[in-house]
Design brief:
Helices cover 53% and strands 0% of the residues. With 98 residues, the chain is mainly alpha-helical. It has one domain: Orthogonal Bundle (Non-ribosomal Peptide Synthetase Peptidyl Carrier Protein, Chain A), CATH 1.10.1200. It is globular.
């Protein structure tokens, strides 16, 4: 099982790859409290899909299956995609269930 720091590093790496394709004024910050999706974020729904697919693939490369587009993510009262930290926490929760 990956450690919490490894989860954060993988997520930050995926954001960095996404940022390589974005204009300077629409890059996503990578701090723990940085907004990923919603108010204050330059990420649109297509960007969110791209990021979630990249994150899922990055974890699969590590032998860890995570699903960011299933009903657990979408039915939460508060989206796991609000900030970098909430996404990391959601992934850690999924890993703990397996």
């Amino acid at each position: 099982m990956l450690k919490a720091e490894n989860v954060r590093v993988i997520v930050i790496g995926c954001i960095a790859r996404l940022n390589e394709q974005r204009e300077t004024d629409s890059k996503l910050p990578t701090g723990a409290d940085s907004p990923l999706f919603g108010d204050g974020s330059p990420l649109d729904s297509l960007g969110l899909v791209t990021l979630t697919m990249d994150v899922e693939d990055a974890f699969a490369d590590q032998g860890v299956e995570v699903s960011l587009s299933d009903s657990r993510a979408m039915s939460r009262k508060q989206s796991p995609f609000r900030t970098v930290a909430t996404l990391v926490q959601f992934i850690e929760e999924q890993m703990a269930e397996t």
